[in-house]
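Exercise 7. Predict the structure of D-ribose-binding periplasmic protein from Rubripirellula reticaptiva.
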Amino acid sequence: MPQISQLSIAAGLTCFCLLSGCKGSATTDAPNSDSSTKPKVALIMKSLANEFFSTMASGAEMHQQDSGEYELVVNGIKDERDVSRQVALVQEMVASNVDAIVIAPAESQALIPSLRRAIKAGIIVVNIDNKLDAEMLSKEGLQIPFVGPDNRAGARAVGDYLATQLAKSDSVAILEGLQTSENGRARKAGFEDAMNAAGVTIVDSQSAEWEMSKANEIASSMLSEHTEIKAILAANDSMALGAIAAARSVGRSDDLLIVGFDNIAAVQTAIRDGKVLATADQHGDQLAVYGIETALKLIEDKTTAVVDVETPVDLVIKETLVAKENLDAK
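Solution. The predicted structure, encoded as tokens:
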């Protein structure tokens, strides 16, 4: 598995935005270069306060600096649920005449009308992370490639590993992502696939909307209402961290099993410490890069077939982290 990239660039951007109230945008280009003929790519993500997306931003910025072949505008929203702000960012990027928009949409349907307008303006659009609604795209007559992992398969792998630590008929709960996001629905479905195959009972399943604090609140309620719960399956790592806090608050730190999805650094630490059992690595530092490279190909040759690109997703457990550390040390 590739090493998670350093977050200094993205963290600095996030801190600056929080202090100054900026919209979370930055343009990067190789120093002393003539950018007039270079394509301009806008990366529009969800919250840069989420480590997964700050890692994604950092990976994209490093790729741009290494290649020097394009300009990059990095955008992020403060709240992962702020769909209206993402719509506004798309409109701003259209007005600034970018050549391509690579977007991790906060919601699978609401962004489609603004992306249709971007395409009508001649802008290449590439969808990453959270897949846009296929039925709505078809109705709109749009072809937007999705570049990202099979979220259902990744969640199934995490759930299958959790099932090896459970007995048949044990009880578990799920912390879902946004119910209007395709990746949230896919991860929930993957968890359900694994639990159903193992004969494990899902006694509660609620959306914590990707947020740590909301996950803490909901998981605490779940654990109080269903004392028989043996494990919590969180659809992202921020919610897994919220579940850790909830387990601590109800005295379940030592026996409650928790799994997540995203492989952020804080959860890697929790896995080493035995607080989280497993997560899924969709290689956030490279996910935007895959999308940008797809966009650059489409800019170069607009006759290129618009096809989805499936990217890697891997199970991460304590043993794989240790093996990687040993490999890196050599």
